[in-house]
Design goal:
This protein is of the alpha/beta class.
Length: 649
């Protein structure tokens, strides 16, 4: 995907002995008179160099740049000293697909080829123009086209001063239908990348020859883009940075980009479209407290000084509000910190009593690491109120704690989970494997139509919440297992799927095979950790796996475990990062390989995809893809062929 362009790199400056460049470049017949054909020596007394040397000094015509069909070249300027791979990283984080990119480190300008679609290019400019890359401001502008005046298209002449709204919600200037079309183009770009990667492996007999029929199109149809029911104030969880504004005073809001890209100032979040008033009010009052009611400093990431770091605000649809304040203890005394926290608690509840803000729960969190993100096991202390509140999705209530994962757009999440439930379309003889289950939201929403649901999750606290959610909703056919998915998938499959057995132990002794061994292991885990539900040895003939991983995707060993269980004939993959999903999809679909045993079993095939917009005004979007193989895929292809035959007739 990375190409080298630019005619300047191909040009070689002419070196001549004449002051007249034209005379030195024009070769007339007299210059070569008397030379034998192919002779390299000049005539005696001639001052002309040999022909071979003259050729080296003659000015070469610059190599003509080949146009990329359906694409347009743009210049990325203002980024002197930035390496090409750094620029690629910025583009990958934004999710923007491109045909090729070129950037020399010592050049101010890079080049990028983007799909020539008006709405897509408008979205690219909204996302890229004015962003910082390692402290340098990037500007995207159309490359000069021969015979076309600069900014000849109306959209090329638009210049926008970048604000905090542009940084946090970069698409807010676009009409919502344009946002949806832009995101559709992003997802189609990722689907096409999967096709491109698999084409290199689609040899005859590989099992993925079907990819060749797609040419360079998407790996499967993107059937629909689902709109968010709420466009503004939709986020139920908001994290605000505590720092200093441009005036040097404490500010609680959003930073103007990543700190790694040189952004240090914090701006006021008022007016940011996706942030609700419940969160904005808490941020405003926290700013007031820091400026007028205490003396401790804000966290400064450059030198790791200061105390106050972050405030997180969660709320639900019935009006409960949870606030968590994060601080460092390294730069102040315990007495000073305790006094400041006591003042903060009193300050917030004065606002609550006056009716100025809502506050159901107040938490404090100590965090002394360099990075902003606290570990899942970081201590969270309840200062006042209830330790949790609940939120409902698809008729079920879910317990929300400060660290629990829950989709930030509640009403759009109901659309997402409804699609997953419909695509899994399980019957009473199928097992549902909810990989990366978190607090059990997807698995519990699917439990009514299944005989058994098993959720797998690394975070023990999330599993405890999932079990409590199952009890609260009177769901009796769900079990939850804590541990790495690559370890728990084989164990659960050995318990419930006839063809799978557990691998040998590290000491080389072979484990007992089948359900008996798995039940023993599950019981021992239950005794030691207390997080595994009631174990049954029910055997299933088929299994549906639902995969909803973090942004970076899952480890390759998880893909290996899914491919290695032949009863898993369907995988519903929910991705919040379609760029990272590309390699995950390739690993699920590539031919079976003996190289390190990473891709055993029959390859999967993507059969349908949908986009769900959980994040209006931003470039983020959820991608849902259904993968199938085996008898399940044969039925799907037969149905599609029959439908096509009816249409043709």
């Amino acid at each position: 995907e990375v190409g080298v362009g630019g005619t300047d790199a191909c040009a070689i400056t002419a070196v001549t002995r004449s002051d007249d460049p034209v005379a030195s470049l024009d070769l007339c017949e007299e210059d070569t008179a008397g030379h034998d054909a192919g002779s390299k020596r000049p005539q005696e007394g001639s001052d002309q160099p040999p022909a071979s040397k003259r050729a080296k000094h003659e000015k070469k015509e610059p190599k003509k740049e080949e146009p990329v069909p359906g694409h347009r070249k743009f210049l990325l300027s203002g980024i002197t000293g930035i390496k090409q791979e750094v620029l690629q990283g910025q583009l990958d984080r934004s999710g923007i697909p491109y045909n090729k990119i070129w950037k020399a480190r010592n050049k101010d300008t890079g080049e990028i080829w983007l799909k020539d679609n008006a709405v897509f290019l408008k979205g690219c400019k909204c996302v890229l123009n004015g962003t910082k890359v390692h402290g340098r401001v990037l500007k995207m502008s159309p490359a000069p086209v021969e015979g076309e005046a600069a900014a000849s298209r109306p959209e090329d002449a638009v210049e926008v001063q970048r604000t905090l709204n542009h940084q946090v919600t970069p698409l807010f200037d676009m009409a919502y239908e344009e946002q949806i079309e832009f995101k559709r183009q992003l997802l189609v770009g990722s689907l096409e990348k999967v096709t491109k990667r698999l084409l290199t492996e689609a040899a005859t007999g590989s099992g993925v020859e079907w990819v060749r029929e797609l040419s360079k199109g998407p790996i499967c149809p993107l059937e629909k883009m689902h709109h968010s029911p709420d466009l503004n104030g939709y986020r139920n969880k908001n994290e605000f940075t505590i720092g200093y504004g441009e005036d040097g005073k404490p500010m609680v809001g959003f930073r103007f980009g990543r700190f790694a890209d040189g952004n240090t100032n914090v701006g006021c979040a008022d007016g940011v479209l996706h942030t609700p008033e419940e969160a904005l009010g808490a941020a405003r009052y926290m700013t007031e407290f820091l400026r007028d009611h205490q003396t401790l400093g804000c966290w400064v990431p450059q030198n790791h000084s200061g105390v106050w770091r972050m405030i997180m605000v969660r709320h639900n649809r019935v009006g409960d509000v949870m606030v968590l304040v994060q601080y460092s203890t390294k730069n102040c005394s315990k007495d000073d910190l305790d006094a400041a926290l006591a003042k903060l608690k009193s300050f917030f509840f004065e606002k609550v009593t006056a009716g100025a803000m809502k506050l159901t729960s107040l938490f404090f969190q100590e965090h002394n690491e360099v990075g902003n993100r606290a570990n899942d096991d970081s201590t969270v202390a309840l200062a006042s109120g209830e330790s949790t509140f609940s939120e409902s999705i698809l008729g079920l209530n879910f317990r929300i704690s400060p660290s629990a994962f829950f989709q930030v757009n509640t009403r759009a999440a109901e659309l997402l989970y409804g699609i997953v439930r419909d695509w899994a379309s399980v019957d009473k003889d199928e097992l549902i494997l909810d990989v990366c289950c978190g607090t059990g939201t997807i698995g519990l929403c699917m439990a009514a139509g299944a005989k058994k649901v098993v959720g797998l999750e690394l975070c023990a606290d999330a599993v405890k919440d999932a079990k409590l959610n199952a009890v609260a909703n009177k769901v009796l056919n769900c079990d939850f297992e804590v541990g790495r998915a690559e370890d728990t998938i084989p164990k659960v499959c050995a318990l419930h799927l006839a063809s799978v057995t557990l691998p040998p132990t590290k000491d080389g002794k072979k484990k007992k095979e089948g359900a008996e061994a798995s039940i023993e292991e599950a019981k021992s885990t239950e005794e030691s950790k207390g997080v595994v539900g009631e174990t049954e040895s029910t055997q299933f003939g088929s299994c549906v796996a639902v995969l909803d991983p973090p942004r970076e995707g899952v480890h390759w060993k998880v893909i290996k475990a899914l491919r290695g269980a032949k009863e898993i004939e369907r995988v519903v993959y929910v991705s919040c990062n379609h760029t990272a999903w590309v390699e995950q999809a390739r690993a699920l679909c590539c031919p079976a390989s003996d190289d390190f045993g990473r891709t055993p079993g029959e390859p999967f095939r993507p059969v349908r995809a949908n986009g769900v917009d959980l994040f209006p005004h931003t470039s983020h979007v959820e991608l849902v893809v259904l993968f199938e193989r085996g008898a399940c895929l044969e039925r799907t292809l037969a149905t599609a062929a029959a439908s096509a035959a009816v249409k043709d007739s």
